[in-house]
Design a protein that fits this description.
This protein is α/β, with parallel strands linked by helices and about 270 residues long. It folds into 2 domains: about 30-190, Rossmann fold (3-Layer(aba) Sandwich), CATH 3.40.50; about 195-265, Helicase, Ruva Protein, domain 3 (Orthogonal Bundle). About 50% of the residues lie in helices and about 10% in strands. It has 13 helices and 5 strands. The chain has helices at about 5-10, 30-45, 60-70, 85-95, 105-125, 140, 145-150, 170-175, 180, 195-210, 220-230, 235-250, 255-265, and strands spanning about 45-50, 75-80, 125-130, 160-165, 185-190. Strands 2-3-4-1-5 form a 5-stranded parallel β-sheet, with helices on both faces. Helix 10 (about 195-210) packs across helix 11 and helix 12 packs across helix 13 (about 255-265). It is elongated and about 65 Å long. It starts with a helix and ends in a 6-residue tail after the last helix.
């Protein structure tokens, strides 16, 4: 958000930007329950699946996952470039773990397993591998993931996998090709778009965190934002920010329904 917009509403930061600390992210009881499930599974050294449509807040939940795990007892590794073949995927994972990227896939796999054993043996730390956008992962690579969970004849859970992606990822995993991976997942969390009441709570939370002293959106504007965004948090951010920019340009101090409708047509979402 531009400085003139922040100045117009007396804000110290952009309310709908991405640069927000995990402890200031919006949470409601249903989101907290989903996060608690994820944390319970990971702290039990198990694997899980997190799905949701584009923009519903999967990345925010992952940030909360990382901040909720003890940095002493857990090491979180996040990979989003997953459109790779098995060897390049292992190479990327080896680099993330800080080990030498060997030439062949078997050598890479062996180096990764040694590092995971080392983390447990010398640092008493459990590695958590978060793989984002997994619906884009080639079948050959996705088919290798269950092997990463196999330590000491599949007798020890030395690394947790958190697979994140669009809902169709679950459909792929249910295919016979990936049944070995599916049966190693202890839980599935599916994030949904927010409800009208949650949209209102979310927007009010974000503007309050940015320093707003009062309401910036009228009730009919909040309803309109929910209607147009479908409760998708990323779309709410885009539309709410566009509405504030338009209000600032017109010297309007309270965003109403008509202004939201005008702002909507100025966004790529319309």
């Amino acid at each position: 958000m531009s400085d003139p917009t922040r100045a117009a509403f007396g804000l110290h930061r952009a309310p709908f930007g991405k640069d927000i600390d995990p402890d200031k992210l919006w949470m409601d009881p249903s989101r907290q329950e989903e996060l608690d499930t994820i944390l319970d599974v990971v702290t039990s050294h198990q694997n899980l699946l997190v799905t949701g449509e584009v923009g519903v807040g999967k990345t925010s939940v992952l940030r909360l996952l990382k901040s909720g795990l003890s940095p002493v007892h857990f090491r979180v590794f996040y990979l989003s470039h997953v459109t790779l073949g098995p060897r390049d995927f292992y190479r990327q994972l080896a680099m993330a773990l800080g080990v030498e990227a060997k030439a062949t896939a078997p050598a890479l796999f062996a180096a990764i397993q040694r590092e995971v054993h080392l983390l447990h043996r010398e640092h008493r730390a459990h590695p958590v591998l978060v793989l984002d956008e997994c619906q884009l992962m080639p079948d050959r690579t996705l088919g290798h993931l269950h092997v990463l969970c196999n330590f000491d004849w599949d007798s020890q859970p030395l690394m947790s996998l958190v697979l994140v992606g669009l809902p169709e990822l679950h459909d792929r995993l249910r295919l016979g090709l990936h049944r070995s991976l599916l049966t190693r997942l202890a839980a599935k969390v599916e994030l949904q778009p927010v409800t009208p009441d949650q949209t209102t709570a979310y927007i009010r939370h974000r503007v309050a965190q940015a320093g707003a002293k009062g309401e910036l959106f009228a009730p009919d504007a909040l309803a309109m934002i929910h209607e147009l965004s479908g409760g998708v948090l990323r779309c709410i951010d885009v539309l709410a920010a566009a509405s504030l920019r338009l209000a600032a340009a017109r010297d309007i101090k309270l965003v109403d329904r008509d202004l939201v409708a005008r702002a909507w047509h100025a966004t790529p979402l319309a």
